[in-house]
Amino acid sequence: MLGKTDLEATTCWDFPTQSEGDPDAGDPSFNGVTPARCVSNLVRRYTRPDELVVDPMAGSGTIGAVARSLGRRAVSFDLTPRYRSVFRADAREWPLRANAAALAVVDSPYSDNIVYGSDSRCLGRISCREPRFYEQMARVSAEARRVLRPGGVLAWIIADEYRGGAYTPVGFRLLSVLSHDFEVRDTVVLVRHHDRSASPLWEHRARRFNFFLRGFKFLFILRKPVGESGG
Fold it and tell me: What domain count does the chain have?
């Protein structure tokens, strides 16, 4: 365990800053940016040096950047790439061979609340209240199962939605979808920081109108069955 004493030991992960002082750990200004230490925990726990980590919704570029800094190979793609290290591809059609990766980290849209780009295929254009949202996420899950090696790990970050007075339990619905393809290993609470709603004005509104601001995201940790190939 030498060198691993800084890994998270509980199922509540709280990282107050995105990059922990590393300017190369993605873009902290990106909407819904993935905390670098969250990625570091996943990469160090579930992969070894030179193994492949896949980020199919690359967004801020954090996942690939952290994986490479830890001596892993990384493939990052997105429908609307913003960095040279990210190439254009659809998360529903991974341009990778079967059984190639040790870890896939998916930090996906959780509804149609943020505009990520102009591509009409973007999953962030589908409301989580529509069955089609989960049908499309099931396609991403199937690609993850195909590309991950037997025993490989899928880590998926997702949030619930509260909008217009209606609550949608996105995390629980998505977990039901993912459990058809993977063995569920654990659920982590990833504390949210620096959201646009994290302000005194929104706190006042939450108390006045009796609703809750989203305080965390789910981090689902799943495993491809050991006896299964992905061909």
Answer: 1
Q: What is the pLDDT of residues 35-63, one digit of tens each?
A: 899 999 999 999 999 999 999 999 878 99
pLDDT in tens, 174-215: 999 999 999 999 999 999 886 666 678 889 999 999 999 899
Residue 163's domain comprises: 12-223
CATH of the domain at 179: 3.40.50.150
**pTM for the whole thing?**
0.91
Residue 160, in any domain of the structure = yes
* 63 phi and psi angles, rounded to 5 deg: -60, -50
Residue 3 belongs to some domain of the structure: no
Given a contact cutoff of 8 angstroms between Cβ atoms, the answer to whether 149 and 102 are in contact is yes
Q: Which two tokens stand for residue 44?
A: 């160090």
The answer to whether residue 18 is domain-embedded is: yes
Whether 6 is covered by a domain: the verdict is no
